Amino acid sequence: MGQITLNKVRKCFGEVEVIPPLDLEINDGEFVVFVGPSGCGKSTLLRLIAGLEDVSDGEIRIDGAEATDVPPAKRGLAMVFQSYALYPHMSVRKNIAFPLRMAGLDKAAQDKKVEEAARVLNLTDYLERKPGQLSGGQRQRVAIGRAIVREPAAFLFDEPLSNLDAALRVGMRLEISELHKRLATTMIYVTHDQVEAMTMADKIVVLRAGNIEQVGSPLELYRNPRNLFVAGFIGSPKMNFVNGQEAAKHDAHTIGIRPEHTQVSTEGGDWPGVVGVSEHLGSDTFFHVTCEGFADPLTVRAGGEVDLHYGDKVFLTPDAAHLHRFDKEGLRL
Amino acid sequence: MATKASRTAARMMISPSVILLLGWMIIPLSMTIYFSFLRYNLITPTGNPFVGWENYYWFVTDPSFKAAMINTLLLVGGILLITVIGGILLSLLLDRPMFGQGVIRIMVIAPFFVMPTVSALVWKNMFMNPVNGIFGQMATGMGFEPVDFFGQIPLLSIIFIASWQWLPFATLILFTAMQSLDQEQLEAAEMDGASWSSRFWFIILPHLARAITVVILIETIFLLSVFAEILVTTNGGPGTATTNLTYLIYVSSLLQFDVGMGSAGGVIAIILANIVAIFLMRMIGKNLDA
Amino acid sequence: MARAVPHKTKVFNTAVAGTIGFLMFFPILWILILSFKTEEDAIRAPFQVLFSSGWTMDSFATVQERSDYFKHFMNSVTISLGSTFLGLLIAIPAAWAMAFVPAKHTKDVLMWMLSTKMLPPVGVLVPIYLIFRDLGLLDTRVGLVFVLMMMNLPIIIWMLYTYFREIPGEILEAARMDGASLREEVLYVLTPMAVPGIASTVLLNIILSWNEAFWTLNLTAAKAAPLTAFIASYSSPEGLFYAKLSAASIMAIAPILIMGWFSQKQLVRGLTFGAVK
Asked: What's B43's DSSP letter?
């Protein structure tokens, strides 16, 4: 079981309120991602759930039981830290076994669990090494191993991939998703990378300045962003925003259109413009187009083989079905 | 990072140190200040009457005070000059590629670990003794009149001995600082056409500036208190030629048993040291934020 | 990054630096040689000393016999080890708390502690001397252990603090999440990681206390005198017995010289209060 409920949880550091009262429901077995720009309070929120920070107000319930004042170790949660936080003086085996040793398990049971975890994580050959002798990805796996053996009610991940290089990150992303499918345990995952959020989450919680901007599945957030912030944050490349006259035509203060929902044509369309820099990714091409009367250039996606050059004249046509409209306050209309 | 329970525990853990240091600072300090206003001599009981600023007056107007201040200044200044310049040169030298760098570094640093009484005595007897000392014998051997170091140039001799002990300190610290200099910076400067001397002036020296300041401040704190070297070589003499402030206070309080006078001197020494300490603390404080 | 340096340059550098290093080290080397000579050989001209035939351990034996060298040596050991470990006992909890549970005023407390180190000893010589006289602590090892502990406490706390601060807080949090109690956290995680830092703190403080020559000279006479004070007694005509002075000196500085060589790096940190790394 791993159902976590936050009820009017509030956190202040001295005078500064970093998290205004906040409610959140995390269901058993869910993969929840907290995402937001740096300083939005997502790590603090995770640490409140872990018990590493005291809650200033409100309550946290784990599996229905009040856990607000329960010390971290007693909450039945496991955490994977950004720096992995491996014990440098212990071998991989001892690192993974540490929580079991603290729980007072006998040696044989410890060994059995450690070896099982090592097998799952491909660490069997490295059990006797010290963390300093491992690569970044291996260290990451040891940290996960240390979390797994505890069989926690929920896993907490604090930006676990931010110290890995790009290629490894994609691999580890898959491994963690894989692990989630197999264990079917609740996972709470903090990241500032919306790609990680989109690819891994069952449920995304978008945070800004301690406030929850929107909660939903990746596709819900992609299709129906509740406000400008979520619209701009989710999706890559970013949604284009247009203000002024063009928006007024649609009865909105601002309209948003994603690069993938815009047609490019050399013959004719709604918005004439000039091609700027183009980025060829092979499968796709992104053009930056400066349109007449628009303050900022728009990004549009075209097929990989489309051949346009710097300075070419083009016409853009937004896909009406995917047009997002926002009012003066930035809320969806 | 912190929860309520751990904060209370933390306070309990800090308090023994705080209480001890507070006691160590306040009790003797207030006694020194108190004594400095009394006529208080250990051999001639006077009933220890309150005499106001009298001790300060007599301490400061005593000709040996002026001598001691000048000697302290010369001692500290001279040693600083030798050790800082020598330290920069030595650390530049040690930073160059060579064979057996580790062994050479150990030889350079060794004098710092020699206790002050040993170094003072060894220099005094085996090197600076005009008859049997190595310098004396070398001079005689070459047909010169040997120098009577502690008779003719006593203060200079003590500066020399103390510099021998503190040059390794300066070298060690400046060398450590030198090694944190980014080599790519020097290579960039070389690409920009900077000669060796401009690389030294515009890159190496500014990089060392902080370490040099630290060396100066810390040495000053320690050098204001040079004591053992004087005690075992010259006893402050001849006359007051090698009496520094520390030694003068020692003479008034433990040789002449004049507690009042010694305390007045102590207060003056504390004020002097504090002037240096303020600058040092500021530098350390800045580092703490970084 | 590393460039090939012409062999000639390297030889030249080695020669220059080697010469300077040798000159700096020479006085120590010289007393090492003299300590193995007879008194008659020791006062000869330098070159004659080198080529004089006799090598003897007599001086060491004589120093021990005449002045009970071993007693002073043990005083030094007791005082430096005693003050260091007593200091450690008080400093470890304080440094731990300041490093891992920083509060608003932690920095100020730390700076204040350091500032007590800036107090010149001579400024409090009189009161300490009088207090010691009245408490019967003059010329006792207990008294010196206490004074040197107080002298070095700020440095010990400071050094430990900087070492502790290098231990990532996340590791301790991980231990807490893993179910370690405070005791287990300190025992299994913190202490093993802090051992190198504690060891270098110990080393530096032994060196500083061993060589301390203000309080040891002023607060001891015969009984509790450590080596600093014992050697000072050679300033009288006895100092002209070069072989014996050398033997006594070598024995007094050898342990620290060896320790010092092993702790150069830590020394920089300790002596500059972390301002140079």
From this structure: S
ipTM for the predicted complex comes to 0.83
Q: Which of A185, A213, A232 is the last residue of a domain?
A: A232
A52 with B1: Cβ contact below 8 A: yes
How far apart are the C-alpha atoms of B108 and B88, rounded to whole Å? 13
Indicate the residue type of B157. Answer: S
Distance CA B162, CA A271 (A): 83
> Amino acid identity, residue B257?
F
Per-residue pLDDT band for B1 (boundaries 50, 70, 90) equals very low
Report the domain count for chain A.
Answer: 2
Phi, psi values for residue A178, rounded to 5°? -55, -50
Distances (CA, A) of C173 to A1, A43, A53, A85, B89: 24, 14, 10, 8, 47
Query: Which segments of chain A have a pLDDT < 70?
Result: none
| Fold that domain C68-235 belongs to in CATH | MetI-like fold (1.10.3720)
Q: Which residues of C touch A99 (CB under 8 A)?
A: 177-179
Alpha carbon distance C95, A159 (integer Å): 30
Domain range spanning residue B76? Answer: 15-289
CATH code of residue B282? 1.10.3720.10
Please indicate whether, in this complex, the C-beta atoms of A53 and B4 are within 8 angstroms of each other: no
- Asked if residue A128 lies in contact with residue A91, where contact means CB atoms within 8 angstroms, the answer is yes
Burial degree of A52 (CB within 10 A; 0-12, 13-18, 19+): buried
- Name chain C contacts of B171, Cβ cutoff 8 Å: none
Indicate yes or no: CB of C268 within 8 angstroms of CB of B176. yes
Assess whether pLDDT exceeds 90 at residue C125. no
> Does residue A137 sit in the same domain as residue A280?
no
The string of pLDDT tens digits covering residues A73-97 is 888 888 998 888 888 888 999 999 9
Residue A239: per-residue pLDDT: 92
B203/B197 Cα distance (integer angstroms) = 10
Q: Is B1 part of any domain? A: no
Contacts of C174 in chain B (CB under 8 A): none
Are both A99 and A116 inside the same structural domain? yes
Residue B32, min C-alpha distance to chain C (Å): 6
- Are the beta carbons of B38 and B259 closer than 8 angstroms? yes
Using the predicted structure, report yes or no on whether residue B160 has a pLDDT greater than 90.
Answer: yes
Please give the structure tokens belonging to residue C173.
């949090």
Please give the biggest Cα pair distance in chain C.
72
